[in-house]
Amino acid sequence: MSEQKPAIIAAIDLKPHRMEEIALQSDALADKLEMDLRIIHVVDEAEFVLPLTNDMGLAPVELDTLEELQKNAVESARKEIVARLPGADPQLIEVFVDIPTEGIKRRAEELGAEIIVVGQPRHLFGSVSKHLARHAPCDIYIVRLEEEGKD
């Protein structure tokens, strides 16, 4: 039985340029520390609540419909990630639906990750980064990103 190397999780989002920079720095860190890299994207489950509301609150929806919406969102995100990160091993890319902070923490625990890499705009401390810095089960490496629209 082979011993599994410690893992680094690159927690990416789909915003322009962010994914690529987080993946690039995560890969360099994994190489330098001789650790396995896993790329994850968590599709926010809140994305499926707003479209299901009407003037009176939540609209009734079939469970099959919700599951189909989630499945389509996961497949679409995975295709975009594979297209934008052509050097990444598709077997090491995971996309799933959850609350982003909770999904990242849970997956880090499951993998026994030692580092989670997240991105964050240079002049703003985002809610996911902030939450993970306080509650993650391992160390956090924050990649400072240029704000959208600035080069």
Shape: globular
Percent strand equals 25-35%
Order of helices and strands: EHEEEHEHEHE
Instruction: Name the CATH class.
Output: Alpha Beta
What count of domains describes the coordinates?
A: 1
The CATH fourth-level homologous superfamily: HUPs
- What Rg do the Cα atoms give? 17 Å
Indicate the low-confidence ranges by residue numbers.
none
Could you tell me how far the N terminus lies from the C terminus, measured between alpha carbons in angstroms? 48 Å
Q: Mind describing the biggest β-sheet? A: 5 strands, parallel
Record field, number of beta strands: 7
Number of helices: 4
Strand order, sheet with most strands: 5-2-1-6-7
Helix coverage percent of residues? Answer: 25-40%
Q: What is the fold named in CATH at topology level?
A: Rossmann fold
Mean pLDDT metric: 86
**CATH-defined architecture:** 3-Layer(aba) Sandwich
SSE-based structural type: alpha/beta
